[in-house]
């Protein structure tokens, strides 16, 4: 099955008709506020609309679980690092010095070996941060995937170039940068499909990518990486030849017949993002909040 990550899916819908410049700003908004959110309710308010839009566009549930693999692995690694690095005495002293029940609930239990210095601490704060990392990275990946799924590559190039217009005042070739970014995004699904094809070809020759020790897996993946690099350079050469034969000159002055215009849909999305940003910023930076106490005590990310 071909991956939908980075691949344009030709369909019609509300999100397809949005201005591509606004879509890029929406992705930036989601990345910034996902890492700025302080409570789980903020992260869920950001994530749930993305999931709804993604299911209406892709209409596949398995692809969501595929995208969630990398954030889950990152969250587990961060949780294990916290498990091995946080000192039990530090957590115990924090509980003794603080009389608040919610702070005690953040450091629920410690597993201590009485003989030796080996100490493992499982705290609610470390667990919250691991889950928050998963939600933030998953939101970022999902927003970027929706951008590429619902925007044609040529419109994405035009939007990036328009957003970088102030850099033209500094004599920076924004059209070249926009072309590089759009080609890189376009090559992501191609390389994913190519890697799957190479893995199947190498597996038919007896290469085992799943079993064996670290050395065997390193040797096995070298049979994937080297052909993938060779194929990537070959595709890049073919693309450059095709662009040259069609008369592409990056430094020449170009005219464009595609003119991007804002509509009522863009205004509606902009107002919604402003309201959402005010809500998250208020919960993050204002001490007094109207949220239930369970969100501000037990379910705070930090």
UniProtKB/TrEMBL annotation:
Compartment(s): Membrane
InterPro entries to which the protein is assigned, alphabetical: ABC/ECF_trnsptr_transmembrane
Keyword hit for Membrane: yes
Transmembrane segments: 21-37, 70-88, 130-148, 169-188, 262-282
Superkingdom per UniProt: Bacteria
Membrane topology: Multi-pass membrane protein
Entry GO terms, CC: plasma membrane
Record key words, sorted: Membrane, Transmembrane, Transmembrane helix
Record-given protein name: Energy-coupling factor transporter transmembrane protein EcfT
Gene that encodes the chain: ecfT
